[in-house]
Amino acid sequence: MVWRFLCIVFFMVQCLFVYLWLGLFKRSGRENYLVHAYLSWSHFVLKVFDVKLETRGREFVPPAGKGPRVFLCNHQSELDIPVLVAALQEKVGFVAKKELSRVPLLAYWMRQIDCVFIDRSDKAGAHQSLEKAASGLGNNTLTVFPEGTRSKTGSLLPIKSGGLRLAVMAGAEVIPVRIENSRNAFEARVPGTAIPIPVSIRFFPPLDTRKEDGEKIAWQQVKIYLEECWAAPR
Predict the structure, then answer these.
(1) 208 to each of 62, 69, 87, 189, 225, how far by Cα in Å?
(2) 138-167 pLDDT tens trace
(3) Using CA atoms, how far apart are residues 132 and 186, in angstroms rounded to an integer?
(4) What does DSSP say about strands 173-180 and 207-208: parallel, antiparallel, or unpaired?
(5) What is the pLDDT of residue 210?
(6) How many CB atoms are closer than 10 A to CB 40?
(7) Which of 83, 84, 126, 184 is the most buried (most CB within 10 A)?
(8) Quick one: pLDDT at residue 225?
């Protein structure tokens, strides 16, 4: 397992040198390279972990740049992020725990892709951070793991309201996402497991949090829809 992490770190360091060089000598190409590096990283990680990705429902995802979007995704593995990025083929930021903001290299890249760090031990501060993220979302995209943490068993955890409220505050289109078997490719991986390891991701039809009259729906409606999607037959 250690060699896999070393490969990924080496890849990220290589990308960092190119990105910093562009910042000094060719700033116009920096954003394009960031997207390229991010997508390449996601595919590289899945290759290192022997993942065979199956994507369903990609046609339901609204085009980027047409309005705010919030992906609501279950969370069972560290691989969920590269799985989502590889399936989307887009740059997308995430709501992440504050502890990750102190991890060298990783934190730098997370800031470049507009991740939002939340201090889960400070409810008032976390709420303010979500409000700020909602007001600044614009026509951009953010991914939220509404369970609040990774499932240690692979089973779905209770849905928390913070990310749902963020989507409603931003007036975003909500796209439920369900990832399956990613934990078995990493956290619950057993030596000698047959490869490639199948991992699936499914996108569901979006729910617009804005009504036709301009009013916003209640976050409880988002929760009900999300639960329905996650419980849908495989």
Answers:
(1) 11, 9, 22, 37, 11
(2) 999 999 999 999 999 989 999 999 999 999
(3) 33
(4) antiparallel
(5) 87
(6) 14
(7) 83
(8) 97
Under the banding of pLDDT at 50, 70 and 90, the label for residue 193 is confident
Compute φ and ψ for 73, nearest 5 degrees: -120, 140
Q: Which whole-number Å values give the CA distances from 23 to 10, 29, 113, 115, 193, in the listed order?
A: 20, 9, 15, 20, 42
In whole angstroms, how far apart are CA 180 and each of 39, 142, 144, 197, 203?
A: 20, 20, 17, 11, 12
C-alpha 40/C-alpha 145 separation (Å) is 23
**pLDDT value, residue 213:** 64
CA 99 from centroid of its chain's CA atoms = 17
The first and second tokens of residue 190, run together, are 């057993």
Which of these, 61, 64, 63, 65, lies nearest to 73 by C-alpha position? 61
Domain annotation for the chain: domains and CATH numbers? 51-230 (3.40.1130.10)
Give the model's pLDDT for residue 186: 95
Residue 214 pLDDT more than 70?
no
